[in-house]
Design goal:
By secondary structure, this protein is of the alpha/beta class. The chain is built from ten helices and 13 strands.
């Protein structure tokens, strides 16, 4: 199967993340499944006239297009022309190219939250009038119609994340190559459910502190970051802590709060990312599926039962009180 990868308005971070795929690396993994890049602007050797000729062959149908991957949001400005971002040497905007190529592809994949929902590219007033492929934030409808489907019958597949996890990209592509992804495998935002059915909270190394509501007060402390430092891993979809980056890393494991980067409109939470908004001292955000009254009752009980070890370690940058040694019973 052929993959054409276009980079639109974004930082290129999802490609950088993809290159972190390990055991095997991304190229061995994809080629072993019969997937190959027709062209990738950062990874392919073809340039200039070679790329223009390739695009012409795809447009005429001479070269079939199995998977169109788009990284980055699509700039529609100024005034809907898309000319804020031109595909160099073609005289045509990225907006026009994606709208032309998407109906020719068997599958269309939005790589990262910018391509999926607009993401960080749309923040701060969105001066370039950027949007996602088939979603404008949480609203249906981007540069492609709400009812758009690739030739294989699926809507745009949104591999959200900022950046997206390399395994989410490779697993999606492998499932598409095997014909093993259907509409039921996508959630309400068209994100693959193999990662979107999990929460970032699952497998978090700070879960013991969360259970007792033993909270860090400053960054670098090892307690739970939900109460004071803006972490919303209990609401954010993703298996980041089940299969961490490079086998060991994630935002929360690195001491930074989860900012829910797989969700539409995460980029403008209306408060700083490292601050938990509160009303009368009570955090506004609640864990998914948890009624407020239940959470407050459980939190009170948990805090009252917090072991001294956990409460002291929570506000330290390392374990200062080790677990109590227990002698075997005779």
């Amino acid at each position: 199967m052929n993959i054409l990868w276009l980079q639109a308005s974004g930082c290129g971070g999802c490609t950088m993340s993809l290159l972190c795929a390990e055991n095997p690396g991304v190229f061995d993994l994809l080629s072993g499944a019969g997937l190959r890049f027709l062209w990738h602007p950062a990874l392919s050797t073809e340039t200039g006239a070679e790329v223009r000729q390739l695009l012409a062959r795809i447009e005429t149908g001479e070269t079939p297009l199995d998977i169109l991957c788009v990284e980055g949001a699509i700039a529609r400005g100024p005034r809907g022309t898309g000319r804020y971002q031109m595909l160099s040497g073609t005289g045509r905007s990225m907006l026009e190219w994606v709208q032309t190529l998407a109906p020719l592809a068997q599958q269309v994949v939005a790589v990262g939250s910018c391509a999926a929902f607009g993401g960080v590219t749309t923040a701060g007033g969105n001066p370039s009038d950027a949007t996602g492929l088939q979603s404008d934030g949480a609203q249906a409808g981007g540069i492609l119609p709400t009812g758009f489907k690739g030739r294989a019958g699926l809507p745009v597949i949104n591999i959200a994340g900022c950046p997206t996890h390399p395994d989410w990209v490779t697993e999606t592509l492998l499932l598409l190559a095997a014909g093993a992804m259907t509409a039921t495998d996508l959630d309400g935002y068209a994100r693959p459910r193999f990662f979107a059915d999990h929460l970032v909270h699952h497998g978090c190394s700070k879960n013991e502190y969360y259970e007792y509501k033993a909270s860090a007060q400053d960054l670098s402390q090892i307690g739970c970051m939900m109460e004071h430092l803006g972490c919303i891993g209990t609401q954010a979809v993703g298996d980041c802590n089940i299969r961490p980056w490079n086998g060991s890393g994630s935002c929360t494991r690195g001491g930074y709060p989860c900012i829910n980067c797989t969700a539409p409109e995460f980029e403008e939470p209306r408060h700083t990312f490292t601050e938990t908004p509160k009303v009368a001292g009570i955090p506004i955000g609640l864990p998914s599926d948890m009624p407020k009254a239940w959470f407050m009752a459980l939190a009170s009980l948990s805090k009252a039962a917090t072991p001294d070890r956990i409460s002291k370690n929570a506000i330290s940058d390392r374990v200062t009180v080790p677990p109590t040694l227990r002698k075997p019973k005779t």
